[in-house]
Amino acid sequence: MNGKNTIKYLELFSGIGGFRTAVERAGKSSNVDVKCVGFSDIDSNAVKTYKANFNVGKDELEIGDITSINSDEKIKNQLPNFNILFAGFPCQPFSLMGEKEGFLDSRGTLFFQIANILSIKKPDFFILENVRGLKTHDGGKTFERILEILKEDLGYNVRTEMLNSLDFGVPQVRRRLFFIGIKNKKIFDEFSKIEFGGKRERKFKTMWHLLEREVDDKYYLSERLIKTILADGSGNYKSKSEINRIFARPLTATMHKMHRANQDNYYSDAFINGKYVSSGYVETTNIGKKRIRRITPMEAFRLQGFDDSFTKKASLAGVSDTQLYRQAGNAITVNVAEEIIKSLFRIA
Predict the structure, then answer these.
(1) So which residues are the catalytic ones?
(2) Which of 6, 39, 120, 129 has its CA 20 to 30 A from that of 173?
(3) pLDDT tens, 183-206?
(4) Angle at 53 between CA 126 and CA 177, to 5 degrees
Protein backbone atom coordinates (compact mmCIF):
# COMPACT_ATOMS: atom_id res chain seq x y z
CA MET A 1 0.00 0.00 0.00
CA ASN A 2 1.11 3.58 -0.49
CA GLY A 3 -0.12 7.05 0.18
CA LYS A 4 -1.83 7.40 -3.24
CA ASN A 5 -4.95 5.52 -2.18
CA THR A 6 -6.91 6.09 0.99
CA ILE A 7 -7.53 2.95 3.05
CA LYS A 8 -11.00 3.09 4.55
CA TYR A 9 -11.86 1.17 7.70
CA LEU A 10 -14.85 0.34 9.86
CA GLU A 11 -14.36 -0.14 13.61
CA LEU A 12 -16.96 -2.33 15.34
CA PHE A 13 -17.21 -2.70 19.13
CA SER A 14 -14.83 0.24 19.01
CA GLY A 15 -14.67 0.94 22.74
CA ILE A 16 -12.29 3.86 23.19
CA GLY A 17 -10.70 3.41 19.79
CA GLY A 18 -7.74 1.09 20.27
CA PHE A 19 -7.81 -0.08 16.67
CA ARG A 20 -8.28 3.48 15.44
CA THR A 21 -5.24 4.61 17.41
CA ALA A 22 -3.26 1.69 15.99
CA VAL A 23 -4.23 2.21 12.35
CA GLU A 24 -3.60 5.96 12.52
CA ARG A 25 -0.11 5.35 13.92
CA ALA A 26 0.55 2.62 11.36
CA GLY A 27 -0.66 4.83 8.53
CA LYS A 28 1.54 7.71 9.59
CA SER A 29 4.69 5.59 9.91
CA SER A 30 3.97 3.69 6.67
CA ASN A 31 2.96 6.72 4.59
CA VAL A 32 -0.52 5.31 4.05
CA ASP A 33 -3.62 7.51 4.12
CA VAL A 34 -6.30 6.00 6.34
CA LYS A 35 -9.86 7.10 6.96
CA CYS A 36 -12.53 5.93 9.38
CA VAL A 37 -15.92 5.56 7.68
CA GLY A 38 -17.79 4.46 10.79
CA PHE A 39 -17.59 3.15 14.33
CA SER A 40 -19.90 1.29 16.68
CA ASP A 41 -20.23 0.93 20.44
CA ILE A 42 -23.11 0.92 22.92
CA ASP A 43 -21.13 2.22 25.94
CA SER A 44 -21.79 5.97 26.18
CA ASN A 45 -18.74 6.53 28.39
CA ALA A 46 -16.46 4.75 25.95
CA VAL A 47 -17.90 6.84 23.12
CA LYS A 48 -17.24 9.97 25.18
CA THR A 49 -13.56 9.00 25.50
CA TYR A 50 -13.50 8.12 21.79
CA LYS A 51 -14.86 11.49 20.71
CA ALA A 52 -12.59 13.34 23.11
CA ASN A 53 -9.56 11.87 21.37
CA PHE A 54 -10.47 11.66 17.70
CA ASN A 55 -11.55 14.24 15.19
CA VAL A 56 -14.73 12.41 14.24
CA GLY A 57 -15.74 13.68 10.81
CA LYS A 58 -19.25 14.63 9.79
CA ASP A 59 -19.09 11.94 7.12
CA GLU A 60 -18.31 9.20 9.65
CA LEU A 61 -21.21 6.93 10.53
CA GLU A 62 -21.76 6.70 14.28
CA ILE A 63 -23.63 3.42 14.43
CA GLY A 64 -24.23 2.90 18.13
CA ASP A 65 -25.72 -0.56 18.53
CA ILE A 66 -24.54 -2.61 15.55
CA THR A 67 -27.45 -5.02 16.01
CA SER A 68 -29.74 -2.20 14.83
CA ILE A 69 -28.39 -2.90 11.33
CA ASN A 70 -30.10 -6.25 11.41
CA SER A 71 -30.77 -7.22 7.81
CA ASP A 72 -28.79 -7.83 4.65
CA GLU A 73 -30.48 -4.84 3.04
CA LYS A 74 -29.52 -2.52 5.90
CA ILE A 75 -25.92 -3.76 5.87
CA LYS A 76 -25.73 -3.19 2.12
CA ASN A 77 -27.36 0.23 2.06
CA GLN A 78 -26.57 1.79 5.44
CA LEU A 79 -22.93 0.79 5.90
CA PRO A 80 -20.38 2.58 3.70
CA ASN A 81 -17.82 0.53 1.79
CA PHE A 82 -14.45 -0.05 3.42
CA ASN A 83 -11.16 -1.91 2.93
CA ILE A 84 -10.55 -3.15 6.48
CA LEU A 85 -12.87 -4.21 9.28
CA PHE A 86 -11.63 -4.04 12.87
CA ALA A 87 -13.50 -5.64 15.74
CA GLY A 88 -12.56 -6.48 19.30
CA PHE A 89 -15.82 -8.37 19.64
CA PRO A 90 -17.24 -8.98 23.14
CA CYS A 91 -15.07 -11.44 25.01
CA GLN A 92 -17.16 -12.23 28.09
CA PRO A 93 -18.82 -15.32 26.57
CA PHE A 94 -15.38 -16.88 26.00
CA SER A 95 -13.36 -15.44 28.87
CA LEU A 96 -11.72 -17.45 31.63
CA MET A 97 -13.31 -14.90 33.98
CA GLY A 98 -16.82 -15.34 32.57
CA GLU A 99 -19.37 -18.13 32.47
CA LYS A 100 -18.00 -19.50 29.16
CA GLU A 101 -21.41 -19.75 27.51
CA GLY A 102 -19.97 -18.97 24.07
CA PHE A 103 -22.55 -18.81 21.29
CA LEU A 104 -25.30 -19.52 23.83
CA ASP A 105 -24.66 -16.06 25.25
CA SER A 106 -26.34 -13.22 23.34
CA ARG A 107 -23.01 -11.40 23.21
CA GLY A 108 -21.40 -14.45 21.63
CA THR A 109 -23.84 -14.24 18.74
CA LEU A 110 -22.42 -10.82 17.87
CA PHE A 111 -19.73 -12.72 15.98
CA PHE A 112 -22.42 -13.66 13.46
CA GLN A 113 -23.18 -9.96 13.01
CA ILE A 114 -19.53 -9.50 12.00
CA ALA A 115 -19.77 -12.48 9.66
CA ASN A 116 -22.87 -11.04 7.95
CA ILE A 117 -21.15 -7.71 7.41
CA LEU A 118 -18.07 -9.43 5.97
CA SER A 119 -20.27 -11.53 3.71
CA ILE A 120 -22.08 -8.54 2.22
CA LYS A 121 -19.45 -5.77 2.23
CA LYS A 122 -16.51 -8.07 1.34
CA PRO A 123 -13.61 -5.91 2.59
CA ASP A 124 -10.06 -6.84 1.57
CA PHE A 125 -8.96 -7.42 5.17
CA PHE A 126 -10.22 -7.87 8.70
CA ILE A 127 -8.58 -8.04 12.11
CA LEU A 128 -10.58 -9.50 15.00
CA GLU A 129 -9.41 -9.71 18.62
CA ASN A 130 -10.60 -11.78 21.56
CA VAL A 131 -9.43 -13.40 24.79
CA ARG A 132 -7.20 -16.47 24.73
CA GLY A 133 -9.99 -18.55 26.30
CA LEU A 134 -11.83 -18.48 22.99
CA LYS A 135 -9.34 -20.94 21.54
CA THR A 136 -10.15 -23.66 24.07
CA HIS A 137 -13.82 -22.86 24.68
CA ASP A 138 -16.05 -25.94 24.36
CA GLY A 139 -13.03 -28.14 23.70
CA GLY A 140 -11.94 -25.96 20.78
CA LYS A 141 -15.24 -26.35 18.92
CA THR A 142 -16.13 -22.63 19.11
CA PHE A 143 -12.74 -21.65 17.67
CA GLU A 144 -13.02 -24.19 14.86
CA ARG A 145 -16.55 -23.06 14.03
CA ILE A 146 -15.43 -19.43 13.78
CA LEU A 147 -12.57 -20.42 11.47
CA GLU A 148 -14.93 -22.52 9.37
CA ILE A 149 -17.26 -19.56 8.88
CA LEU A 150 -14.44 -17.14 8.04
CA LYS A 151 -12.67 -19.52 5.67
CA GLU A 152 -15.27 -21.79 4.11
CA ASP A 153 -18.39 -19.64 4.21
CA LEU A 154 -16.83 -16.22 3.60
CA GLY A 155 -13.81 -17.17 1.51
CA TYR A 156 -11.07 -15.48 3.51
CA ASN A 157 -7.54 -16.72 4.03
CA VAL A 158 -7.16 -16.56 7.81
CA ARG A 159 -4.17 -16.50 10.09
CA THR A 160 -4.59 -16.72 13.87
CA GLU A 161 -2.02 -15.58 16.38
CA MET A 162 -1.88 -15.67 20.18
CA LEU A 163 0.15 -12.56 20.98
CA ASN A 164 1.47 -11.30 24.31
CA SER A 165 1.49 -7.53 24.88
CA LEU A 166 4.74 -7.96 26.80
CA ASP A 167 6.47 -8.67 23.47
CA PHE A 168 5.17 -5.50 21.84
CA GLY A 169 6.52 -2.63 23.87
CA VAL A 170 4.51 -2.53 27.10
CA PRO A 171 5.35 -4.08 30.50
CA GLN A 172 2.12 -6.07 30.76
CA VAL A 173 1.61 -9.82 30.44
CA ARG A 174 -1.52 -9.97 28.31
CA ARG A 175 -2.21 -12.76 25.83
CA ARG A 176 -4.89 -12.16 23.25
CA LEU A 177 -6.09 -14.06 20.20
CA PHE A 178 -6.10 -12.32 16.81
CA PHE A 179 -7.80 -13.40 13.58
CA ILE A 180 -6.30 -11.75 10.48
CA GLY A 181 -8.31 -12.27 7.31
CA ILE A 182 -7.06 -11.51 3.79
CA LYS A 183 -9.04 -12.00 0.57
CA ASN A 184 -6.07 -12.08 -1.79
CA LYS A 185 -4.18 -15.40 -1.59
CA LYS A 186 -0.90 -13.94 -2.86
CA ILE A 187 -0.92 -11.20 -0.22
CA PHE A 188 -1.87 -13.77 2.42
CA ASP A 189 1.05 -16.01 1.49
CA GLU A 190 3.44 -13.07 1.92
CA PHE A 191 1.81 -12.10 5.20
CA SER A 192 2.14 -15.68 6.46
CA LYS A 193 5.93 -15.40 6.27
CA ILE A 194 6.02 -12.56 8.80
CA GLU A 195 6.98 -13.60 12.32
CA PHE A 196 5.38 -11.96 15.32
CA GLY A 197 6.33 -12.15 18.96
CA GLY A 198 9.96 -11.01 18.92
CA LYS A 199 10.90 -8.74 21.79
CA ARG A 200 10.24 -5.05 21.06
CA GLU A 201 11.93 -2.13 22.75
CA ARG A 202 9.63 -0.71 25.39
CA LYS A 203 8.88 2.94 25.96
CA PHE A 204 8.58 1.94 29.63
CA LYS A 205 11.03 -0.90 30.20
CA THR A 206 9.34 -2.18 33.34
CA MET A 207 6.58 -1.12 35.71
CA TRP A 208 9.17 0.74 37.75
CA HIS A 209 9.82 2.95 34.73
CA LEU A 210 6.12 3.38 33.98
CA LEU A 211 4.81 4.33 37.43
CA GLU A 212 4.17 7.97 38.29
CA ARG A 213 6.25 9.13 41.23
CA GLU A 214 3.63 11.42 42.75
CA VAL A 215 -0.09 10.74 42.61
CA ASP A 216 -3.23 11.80 44.45
CA ASP A 217 -3.73 10.25 47.89
CA LYS A 218 -7.04 8.75 46.70
CA TYR A 219 -5.12 5.97 44.94
CA TYR A 220 -3.52 4.74 48.19
CA LEU A 221 -5.09 1.90 50.15
CA SER A 222 -6.29 2.33 53.72
CA GLU A 223 -4.80 0.07 56.39
CA ARG A 224 -8.09 -1.83 56.55
CA LEU A 225 -8.20 -2.34 52.80
CA ILE A 226 -4.56 -3.40 52.63
CA LYS A 227 -5.35 -6.42 54.81
CA THR A 228 -8.02 -7.54 52.33
CA ILE A 229 -5.96 -6.79 49.22
CA LEU A 230 -2.94 -8.70 50.53
CA ALA A 231 -4.92 -11.71 51.79
CA ASP A 232 -3.87 -14.98 50.13
CA GLY A 233 -7.35 -15.92 49.00
CA SER A 234 -10.27 -16.98 51.19
CA GLY A 235 -12.06 -20.19 52.09
CA ASN A 236 -10.96 -23.05 49.84
CA TYR A 237 -9.39 -20.66 47.31
CA LYS A 238 -5.76 -19.86 48.05
CA SER A 239 -3.49 -17.79 45.84
CA LYS A 240 -0.43 -15.81 46.88
CA SER A 241 -1.00 -12.06 46.78
CA GLU A 242 2.03 -10.32 45.36
CA ILE A 243 2.66 -6.61 44.90
CA ASN A 244 5.47 -4.72 43.15
CA ARG A 245 5.54 -6.98 40.10
CA ILE A 246 8.17 -5.89 37.58
CA PHE A 247 5.70 -6.71 34.78
CA ALA A 248 2.01 -6.06 35.30
CA ARG A 249 -0.71 -8.66 35.43
CA PRO A 250 -3.35 -8.43 32.69
CA LEU A 251 -5.61 -5.43 33.20
CA THR A 252 -9.25 -6.30 33.78
CA ALA A 253 -12.42 -4.37 33.08
CA THR A 254 -13.39 -4.79 36.76
CA MET A 255 -10.17 -3.49 38.30
CA HIS A 256 -12.00 -0.40 39.54
CA LYS A 257 -13.47 -2.71 42.20
CA MET A 258 -9.96 -3.46 43.53
CA HIS A 259 -9.47 -7.21 43.70
CA ARG A 260 -6.84 -8.96 45.77
CA ALA A 261 -3.23 -8.55 44.76
CA ASN A 262 -3.21 -12.00 43.18
CA GLN A 263 -5.34 -10.50 40.39
CA ASP A 264 -4.73 -6.74 40.20
CA ASN A 265 -1.64 -4.53 40.25
CA TYR A 266 -0.49 -2.73 43.41
CA TYR A 267 2.78 -0.99 44.26
CA SER A 268 4.43 0.36 47.39
CA ASP A 269 6.24 3.67 47.75
CA ALA A 270 9.29 1.63 48.74
CA PHE A 271 9.27 0.10 45.24
CA ILE A 272 8.30 3.24 43.35
CA ASN A 273 11.07 5.26 44.98
CA GLY A 274 13.57 2.41 44.91
CA LYS A 275 16.55 1.93 42.62
CA TYR A 276 16.26 0.01 39.37
CA VAL A 277 19.08 -2.45 38.77
CA SER A 278 19.96 -3.34 35.19
CA SER A 279 19.23 -7.03 35.78
CA GLY A 280 15.54 -6.17 36.06
CA TYR A 281 15.48 -6.02 39.85
CA VAL A 282 14.40 -3.05 41.98
CA GLU A 283 16.16 -2.35 45.24
CA THR A 284 13.38 -1.04 47.46
CA THR A 285 13.89 1.69 50.02
CA ASN A 286 13.15 1.29 53.72
CA ILE A 287 10.66 4.12 53.53
CA GLY A 288 7.09 3.66 52.34
CA LYS A 289 6.72 -0.12 52.63
CA LYS A 290 3.32 0.31 54.23
CA ARG A 291 2.20 2.91 51.70
CA ILE A 292 0.59 0.84 48.95
CA ARG A 293 -1.48 2.08 46.07
CA ARG A 294 -3.38 0.87 43.06
CA ILE A 295 -2.21 1.88 39.61
CA THR A 296 -3.74 5.11 38.30
CA PRO A 297 -5.90 5.40 35.17
CA MET A 298 -2.96 7.11 33.46
CA GLU A 299 -0.72 4.14 34.23
CA ALA A 300 -3.40 1.70 33.07
CA PHE A 301 -3.65 3.46 29.72
CA ARG A 302 0.14 3.48 29.41
CA LEU A 303 0.04 -0.30 29.87
CA GLN A 304 -2.25 -0.51 26.84
CA GLY A 305 0.04 1.62 24.68
CA PHE A 306 -1.90 4.89 24.77
CA ASP A 307 -0.19 8.27 25.08
CA ASP A 308 -0.76 10.28 28.25
CA SER A 309 -2.69 12.89 26.27
CA PHE A 310 -5.34 10.23 25.57
CA THR A 311 -6.16 9.82 29.26
CA LYS A 312 -6.02 13.55 29.92
CA LYS A 313 -8.49 14.35 27.13
CA ALA A 314 -10.90 11.72 28.45
CA SER A 315 -10.67 13.12 31.99
CA LEU A 316 -11.24 16.66 30.75
CA ALA A 317 -14.34 15.41 28.93
CA GLY A 318 -15.73 14.28 32.27
CA VAL A 319 -15.01 10.56 32.16
CA SER A 320 -14.66 9.26 35.74
CA ASP A 321 -11.79 7.18 37.09
CA THR A 322 -14.15 4.22 37.42
CA GLN A 323 -15.00 4.37 33.73
CA LEU A 324 -11.36 4.94 32.74
CA TYR A 325 -10.33 1.78 34.60
CA ARG A 326 -13.07 -0.18 32.83
CA GLN A 327 -12.08 1.23 29.47
CA ALA A 328 -8.39 0.44 29.91
CA GLY A 329 -9.22 -3.11 30.97
CA ASN A 330 -11.50 -3.63 27.96
CA ALA A 331 -9.13 -2.06 25.44
CA ILE A 332 -6.83 -3.80 23.02
CA THR A 333 -3.12 -3.12 23.43
CA VAL A 334 -2.48 -0.54 20.72
CA ASN A 335 1.11 -1.67 20.07
CA VAL A 336 0.05 -5.20 19.11
CA ALA A 337 -2.61 -4.08 16.63
CA GLU A 338 -0.26 -1.47 15.20
CA GLU A 339 2.40 -4.10 14.49
CA ILE A 340 -0.10 -6.29 12.64
CA ILE A 341 -1.46 -3.39 10.59
CA LYS A 342 2.02 -2.14 9.67
CA SER A 343 2.87 -5.62 8.44
CA LEU A 344 -0.23 -5.60 6.24
CA PHE A 345 0.63 -2.17 4.88
CA ARG A 346 4.15 -3.32 3.95
CA ILE A 347 3.00 -6.14 1.68
CA ALA A 348 -0.48 -5.22 0.46
Answers:
(1) 91
(2) 39
(3) 999 999 999 999 997 777 889 999
(4) 30
